[in-house]
Amino acid sequence: MSEMRLIVAGAGGRMGRALTRAIADTKGAVVAGALEAPGSELLGKDAGVLAGLPANGIKLSADLWAMSKDADGILDFTVPAATIANVAIAAERGLVHVIGTTGLSASDNAVIKSVTNRAVVVQSGNMSLGVNLLAAVVKRVAKALDESFDIEVVETHHRMKVDAPSGTALMLGQAAAAGRGISLEDHADRGRDGITGARKPGDIGFASLRGGTVAGEHSVTFLGPFERLTLSHLAEDRMLFAHGALKAALWAHGKAPGHYSMADVLGLADI
């Protein structure tokens, strides 16, 4: 099979530059386009140079329709509004759309799922192998332990992250809820301040820390009578997310239309 031609959305950002470097390191993939927001001062810059690599001749552009003419997929770790704007074009062009954007609303996710009867979408709050294994373990542990064990999800990220809880924290919360056979929306406790009253049995709590340059730390603690179990994952460099996204794109190339996750990519969907 020829090389998979990939567009990097948000190519001028930290994650976009990491994705460009990851593609350069990955056999079977090549940068076919570099998307950036309209009005960005980086438009026209070389994507390779911005990523700290030799020039690759791919200039940052805001015209996804034009650059997608000869592409096979798009790696999208941007912001909700940009991702939703990309969804229709990616589907129309038949691109594999790998979505790592977090902070998406229920209506945003509905838009994404609306195209999956005709398009291939791989979406995950975290593209790392370790985190997806963690989610599988969390689901199993939550199923094994009853409500006498409270569940708390704690995450830490760099000071520039704009959404909370992180997409990964919510993914882990969803895994815990699935293990318990409950709805996360009905049992999430995402904000404690002041006189909150006693903890409600069955709730899944979230706490978010922000500061420094932390790439991402997540833990899920099960607190029971006289004992605690903590499962955790520490990300040391965002390149791990970039390589996970590349794995997802290459896996999805040629797949039937549908909405997939990293659990599908890694063969964990039945855990």
What are the SSEs and their pairings?
Blueprint: E1 4-9, H1 14-24, E2 29-35, H2 47-50, E3 60-61, H3 64-67, E4 73-76, H4 80-93, E5 96-99, H5 106-114, E6 120-123, H6 129-144, E7 150-157, H7 167-180, H8 184-187, E8 188-189, E9 204-210, E10 216-224, E11 227-235, H9 239-252, E12 258-260, H10 262-265
Parallel strand pairs: 1-2, 1-4, 2-3, 4-5, 5-6, 6-12, 7-9, 8-9
Antiparallel strand pairs: 7-10, 10-11
Helix pairs in contact: 1-9, 6-7
Structural class by helix and strand composition: alpha/beta
Fraction of residues in helices?
25-40%
Distance between the termini: 31 Å
Task: Please state the overall shape, judged from the principal axes of the Cα atoms.
Answer: elongated
Order of helices and strands: EHEHEHEHEHEHEHHEEEEHEH
Strand content: 15-25%
What is the count of DSSP helices, taking H or I runs of 4+ residues? 10
Mean pLDDT: 95
What strand line-up does the widest sheet have?
A: 3-2-1-4-5-6-12
Which terms would index this structure?
alpha/beta, 7-stranded parallel sheet, 5-stranded mixed sheet
Report on the architecture of this protein.
The protein is α/β, with parallel strands linked by helices and 271 residues long. It contains 10 helices and 12 strands. The strands form 2 sheets. The protein has a 7-stranded parallel β-sheet, sandwiched between helices. Strands 8-9-7-10-11 form a 5-stranded mixed β-sheet. Helix 1 packs across helix 9. The model has no long low-confidence stretch (mean pLDDT 95).
